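Workshop exercise sheet. Pairs work together: one partner reads the sequence aloud, the other fills in the structure field after running the prediction. Swap roles for the next sheet.
Pair: D.N. / O.F.
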Amino acid sequence: MNKNELYSYLKSRSIWFEITEHKPVYTMNELADIPFPYPQADAKNLFVRDDKKQHYYLITVKGDKRVNLKKFQQAFQTRRLSFASENDLMEILGLLPGSVTPFGLFHDAAHRVQFFVDRSFLDDPGVIGVHPNDNTATVWMKTEDLILILRELGCVVRVMDVG
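Structure field:
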């Protein structure tokens, strides 16, 4: 699903969203100069896997948070974690590096990935900003709507204190 298809999907569901178009970005630092309507709601997404390549996790936190993978591993009783490869990213989520987003879970028909979203995204105003499967834009929407959509797709979604 490309970004225009995603926008059409959200419109067809009558889901509120805003779009910020921007130059391609690959890191959180590159976003610093882009004026966002909800800068406190910008998401950082980590796609990780266990050391046996059996379990995959997409961890989404606010852009200014750090994720300690060892603490995550202990808290959620996973095997040792590391970043998934570019091949895994493309094969499982249909995404290129720099474009990691929860919307990539639309491509995970086998539901191999568990999605962890930081609870702080539900705090007022309850908005999250994520790429629309493309790193040239950010989609702002209600966090609850994103969670609902992903659960309807059959994704495992866990709202937790992450980071």
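Discussion prompt: The first helix runs from residue 3 to 12. What would you look at next?
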